[in-house]
Structures are given as C-alpha cells and as structure tokens.
C-alpha cells in the first residue's frame, strides 16, 4: 500500500479532482504537469500499481473522485465496464450469473461481471473488478434493460426473457441446464414472461439447439400451437438428436418433432 504520495502523484490527483475528471488518457498531463511522455507513463504506471488509479486500457485510466490518502481505490463494476466499452466504442449487456441473480433465478452473487459485447473477448481486471467479456456479433446484442445505479450510471442488462434464453443457449458457459428449464416453467406459470416473448427471443437470439429445447419445453407446457409452429419452421429437417440435458447420457424417449432425447430420467 502506498502511504505517502510524492509531489507529482499529488498534483495529478489534485488536478483530476479540481477538473472533476473521471478518466485520464496518455498525453493529458504532458502540458499540465510539464512532463515528458516517458515521465507521464511512469507516473501513471506507479499510481496504477499502488492502486490509486485503475488502468482500463492502454493509455486510459480511471481516477478517484477524492484523494485516496493512505489507502487504495478501485472503481465499481459499472463504472469500470462502462468506461471500457465507451473507450472501445462498443456495446454490451450484462448476462449470465449476474443476470441470474438480478432476476432472482439464482441467489449466488458472482465474483465476476459477465458481459456480452461486440469488441473484446477474454478476462480483464480493472482495479479490483474482474470482467469476463464475451465477444458476439452485433445482431446477438439486444433485448436489454437499462438500470440506473445509485451513482447515477446506466447499467445495461439482458432482459429477463433474454436471460432465460441465454441460460439455454450458453448452458456450458453459465451452467444453465437443467436449471433454466425450471426457471422458464416458473416464469410462465407466474406470468412474469409470456410464451410469445420467449418464442420471439429464442428465434432472435438462440441457435438450433436452443430452439429445439425451448420448443420441446413449451410443447410440454401446452402453449398455443401457433407458437410451436413458429419455432418448428425455424428448424431444418434432420435426423440428428440432442439430449434434453446436455451433461447426461443421451438415453431416453425420443421426441421426433424437436429432435430431443428426453434424458431427464436417465
């Protein structure tokens, strides 16, 4: 922990506070603090290593609103994610375990923030914020809900129905199956989501496996036949079969309409 700030560190943080700057970029300080580019780079690196500012991307740093004398500082999750995406000029939506918790499907709090986005893939750390960034095509972003945080920031989450579809679509990444089947059944029964919404989201953001599994589930739930036909029309004729629960052996009754093996009792 860096307990004593040098004159340059103090000047940088005081300058950022006076100007109410949230971010500093390489080149911002060369004229203000009369530094060479190399001196500026070393100063920013020292402060980031001391956890007094947080490196977001090459040459981009988040700074605290007040001088963190004698302590460390880290941005919150939404500030870190928003700043990164704004710098990369990208779009994102928080998904997976974070969305499961937000909508009450799972009470476990994730130590990481999972986000679909159209710019970056992989794990990143900004301050103490751990991010898992999942790069997807532009057309796979959508069906979102904006949430205002108490700090006045806007967080973008996958909507409730989109989260249910993603739990089926991205089951291996998010450990979504078979849990998602129960979530969908409960939400349909309570009216939190409608079958029409679910079909629309499955067709818009799912793959063939997602459509098959959701179609089979909705037929079990005896939803309107016209909705089932919409899903069935998206499937090409095929003799291949997929397991209802992917992590279990593919043994059980075969549903030929959806190409699903009912292995929930296997």
Description:
This protein is an alpha+beta fold and 266 residues long. It has 3 domains: 7-62, Arc Repressor Mutant, subunit A, CATH 1.10.10; 76-158, no CATH class; 172-266, no CATH class. Helices cover 41% and strands 18% of the residues. Helix 6 packs antiparallel against helix 8 (179-190) and helix 6 packs across helix 9. The model has no long low-confidence stretch (mean pLDDT 94).
What share of the residues lie within helices? Answer: 40-55%
- For the largest beta sheet, what order do the strands appear in spatially? 4-5-7-6
Q: What Rg, in angstroms, do the CA atoms define?
A: 24 Å
Provide the structure class.
Answer: alpha+beta
- For the residues shown, what is the average pLDDT? 94
Calculate the terminal CA-CA distance, rounded to whole Å.
55 Å
Shape: elongated
Outline the biggest β-sheet.
Answer: 4 strands, mixed
Q: Domain count, please report it.
A: 3
- Put simply, the count of helices is 11
């Amino acid at each position: 922990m860096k307990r004593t700030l040098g004159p340059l560190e103090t000047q940088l943080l005081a300058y950022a506070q006076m100007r109410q700057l949230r971010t500093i970029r390489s080149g911002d300080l060369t004229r203000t603090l009369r530094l060479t580019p190399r001196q500026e780079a070393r100063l920013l690196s020292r402060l980031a290593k001391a956890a007094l500012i947080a490196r977001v991307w090459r040459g981009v740093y988040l700074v605290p609103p007040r001088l963190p004398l004698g302590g460390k500082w880290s941005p919150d999750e939404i500030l870190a994610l928003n700043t990164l995406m704004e710098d990369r000029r990208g779009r994102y939506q928080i998904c997976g375990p974070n969305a499961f918790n937000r909508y009450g499907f799972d009470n476990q709090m994730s130590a990481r923030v999972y986000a679909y986005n159209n710019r970056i893939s992989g794990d990143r750390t900004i301050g103490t914020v751990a991010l898992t960034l999942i790069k997807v095509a532009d057309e796979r972003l959508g069906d979102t809900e904006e949430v205002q945080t108490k700090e006045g920031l806007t967080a973008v989450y996958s909507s409730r129905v989109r989260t249910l579809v993603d739990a089926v679509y991205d089951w291996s990444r998010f450990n979504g199956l078979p849990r998602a089947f129960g979530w969908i059944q409960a939400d349909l029964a309570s009216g939190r989501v409608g079958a029409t919404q679910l079909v629309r989201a499955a067709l818009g953001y799912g793959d063939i496996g997602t459509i098959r599994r959701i179609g089979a589930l909705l037929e079990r739930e005896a939803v309107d036949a016209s909705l089932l036909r919409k899903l069935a029309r998206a499937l090409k004729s095929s003799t291949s079969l997929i397991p209802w629960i992917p992590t279990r052996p593919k043994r059980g009754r075969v549903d030929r309409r959806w190409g699903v093996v009912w292995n929930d009792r296997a």
